[in-house]
Amino acid sequence: MELMVYTANAVLPVFVVIFVGLLLNRLNFFSEKTKNEIVKLVFYVGTPCLIFHNISTSDIHQSFDGKFFLFTLALILVLIGVVIAMCFFIQDKKKKGAVIQLAYRSNFAIAGMPIAVNLLDGAGVTLTAVTLSFVIILYNVSAVIILSYYGVEKKSPGAVILGILKNPLIIGTALGLLFAVFQIPVFPIAEKSIKTLGDIASCMGLIIIGASITLRGFQEDKAYILFASFLRNLFAPAFVLITAALFGWRGNHLMVLAIMSASPAAVNCFAMAKQMGVSAEISAYGISISSVLSVFSIFISVYLIKFFGLA
């Protein structure tokens, strides 16, 4: 019961803020122009600052576990490949790109860290923060590549590479990693300012997701939205945890993977979908539904790990 309460406290506020955005939109608070401008603000300012802050403040040297990090990154790449294969039946490339991103990319930073703080010891929390640094890099690079391929515009390999280098999320990740690895100090005023700007991503990002949800959008894409939720909340955690357990990972390592894989779809899925030409409505609904279902997916994942004595 305590685990369920911890999980609900960490992920349900995500859904509540999305609902506030839905309500505000129903009250005509936002024009389409305003929505698009907020998405740009989240994508180009808020999210890069959030990523930079999360990575630059993590102690990479203290809990660096090369074998575990390489395993985690390889596992995510395999998961992406399996998800792409499972989406073979989706003919519309814009919808396929949205489903794929929702399926593999979890809200590890915003939802996962509070859960880790509540469930793990100090070593486990540090391992989570450092793992997050590497996972964010892979999430963002893979998302740019996938969405560049499935987006509206056809892009050459050179254009995709240039898009990765110019992507604000990649820039925020690279700078954060640079500051963390070389332990470059960030002045307190600057750190607080960056953190405040990063809060835009977790607050305004969720509100604009809710404001973009329409009943018509759900009816048109119901099958894809539910399939994406199944992949995010059931298939991904099952695949990750079974594979990790078979490879012998136990304790904090397995718990970190459980939190990472069972967390709801990343809030950034919506902003990236909107900016890169894949279905924003599927992304909005997928984030909303997975935020609710993740209460159960995280609870079941952690419970089973404890039940079988794996941590």
UniProtKB/TrEMBL annotation:
GO biological process, one term: transmembrane transport
Protein name: AEC family transporter
The family this protein is said to belong to: Belongs to the auxin efflux carrier (TC 2.A.69) family.
Membrane topology: Multi-pass membrane protein
Subcellular location: Cell membrane
UniProt KW keywords: Cell membrane, Membrane, Transmembrane, Transmembrane helix, Transport
Membrane spanning residue stretches: 6-25, 37-56, 68-90, 102-120, 126-149, 169-190, 196-218, 230-249, 255-273, 285-305
Organism annotation: Congzhengia minquanensis
GO cellular component, one term: plasma membrane
Major subcellular site: membrane
A Pfam family reported for this protein in Swiss-Prot or TrEMBL: Mem_trans
